């Protein structure tokens, strides 16, 4: 991945690296809505990572929220007051589409690539807008890494905000800090030779699965915290390479059922750890920086993507390459496995997502196109019905796999997208937006069609 020296973590100034520079809207609301919403208690960003002070955000400031009812009555879902501006939403969208510059380095012309892409019907509605809050807002440490939000239920979401991992309860509509890495972190796990204290961490990627929160750092750090326990069980710099950003982390179960943690780094290596004692179980070396690694649902296969137009399929136990993925024109940064383990989705800076049938890797089975930018985040629902695809800014696409991915819903918003996540029960979709004024957490709920009710009317 490209090197990026982060100076301002809170809202990274990407400058030459920027994929989309989103200027704040000039309106009266900037004076009335504070950048950091008021809270019930004073919140100290340098507090201990698991303090018991219950510093919840204040939820009474309704100006920061937008409900489904308000949206149905004409309010912008992000609370942007278009009626006070000198241009309409449609005019601003048109301008952004014209001015947007995707960060890319294509190996060949995209003319042939565009011909490969599926023609998709975008007018579907699979998930309805439910709620938007600005009481928590995502922040991004590196412009190419956007896996910074995870939902563990339809009411529970974890996201990065500055030097904190925040938990948002959509049921209670309030947020709480669960991990603070603004000052040194000391591991609580004893008798682990790999564990070492780490200083102030800029979290670049994260995952929350199996009650385990795993985060990767800008300088090769790895942190693991059990959500039911205080403190951080394991933390360490897992590489000493000068450019060893932890680009991706994943939590999975191997074929025998043991819980594992995997980390992909800029030093071209993928490392596997036992999630119980964090012993090192393997270190796989590849020919280029690994930007993303994910394990198949059965724990047997490893998808390895990075600074190459080609992707790899490897044995998750040994790291041995068993297949190649050829077709993308640029570097890849995201992947997702269909729950059946037979389909792999890969997201690339060439603005496409390719779908691969693991049983025949000679070519991708479908190519899905974004509107304007790289594909930075991919997630399947747990039932395999939908695939969500996020661009770096403004657009999230939801594809119906049962239609062959030709039916889709396009979520059109404004702002950098820090991550997206379906709830495990598929009922909710959360999207994190990073912006100084309109940074927020968006919630959508799955639409159901109860035909038996229609028959009763």
TrEMBL record:
It comes from Medicago truncatula. Keywords: Repeat, WD repeat. This is Transducin/WD40 repeat protein. Residues 23-59 are annotated as: Disordered. WD repeats lie at residues 325-366. Transmembrane segments: none annotated. Residues 47-57 have a biased composition (Acidic residues). The keyword Repeat applies. Residues 31-45 have a biased composition (Polar residues). The gene is 25489425. The keyword Zinc-finger does not apply. It comes from the Eukaryota.
């Amino acid at each position: 991945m490209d090197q990026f020296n982060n100076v301002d973590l809170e809202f990274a100034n990407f400058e030459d690296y920027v994929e989309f520079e989103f200027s704040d809207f000039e309106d009266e609301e900037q004076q009335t809505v504070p950048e950091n919403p008021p809270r019930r208690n004073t919140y100290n960003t340098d507090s201990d990572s698991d303090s018991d002070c219950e510093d919840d955000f204040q939820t009474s400031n309704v100006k920061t929220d937008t409900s489904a009812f308000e949206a149905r009555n004409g309010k912008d879902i992000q609370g942007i007051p278009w009626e006070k501006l000198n241009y309409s939403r449609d005019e601003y969208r048109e301008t952004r589409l014209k001015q947007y510059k995707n960060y890319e380095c294509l190996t060949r012309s995209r003319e042939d690539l565009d011909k490969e892409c599926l023609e998709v019907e975008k007018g579907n509605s699979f998930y309805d807008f439910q709620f938007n809050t600005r009481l928590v807002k995502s922040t991004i440490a590196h412009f190419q890494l956007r896996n910074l939000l995870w939902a563990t239920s339809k009411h529970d979401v974890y996201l990065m905000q500055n030097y904190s991992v925040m938990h948002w309860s959509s049921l209670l509509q309030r947020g709480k800090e669960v991990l603070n890495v603004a000052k040194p972190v000391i591991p609580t796990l004893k008798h682990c030779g790999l564990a070492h204290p780490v200083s102030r961490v800029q979290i670049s990627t994260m995952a929350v699965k199996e009650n385990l929160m795993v985060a990767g750092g800008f300088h090769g750090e790895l942190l693991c915290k059990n959500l039911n326990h205080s403190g951080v069980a394991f933390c360490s710099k897992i590489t000493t390479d000068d450019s060893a950003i932890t680009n991706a982390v994943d939590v999975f179960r191997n074929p025998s059922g043991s819980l594992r943690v995997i980390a992909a780094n800029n030093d071209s290596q993928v490392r596997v750890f036992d999630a119980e004692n964090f012993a090192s179980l393997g270190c796989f070396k590849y020919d280029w920086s690994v930007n993303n690694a994910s394990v198949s649902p059965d724990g047997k296969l490893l998808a390895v993507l990075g600074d190459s137009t080609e992707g790899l399929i490897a044995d998750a136990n040994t790291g041995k390459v068993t297949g190649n993925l050829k077709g993308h024109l640029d570097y890849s940064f995201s992947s997702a496995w269909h729950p059946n383990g037979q389909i792999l989705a890969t997201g690339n800076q060439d603005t496409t997502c390719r779908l691969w049938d693991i049983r025949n890797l000679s070519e991708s089975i479908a190519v899905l196109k974004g509107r304007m930018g790289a594909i930075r985040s991919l997630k399947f629902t747990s039932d395999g019905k939908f695939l969500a695809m996020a661009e770096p800014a403004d657009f999230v696409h939801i594809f119906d796999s049962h239609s062959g991915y030709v039916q889709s819903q396009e979520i059109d918003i404004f702002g950098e997208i820090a991550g997206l996540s379906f709830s495990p029960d598929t009922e909710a979709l959360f999207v994190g937006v990073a912006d100084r004024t309109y940074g927020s957490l968006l919630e959508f709920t799955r639409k159901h069609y109860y035909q038996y009710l229609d028959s009763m009317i």
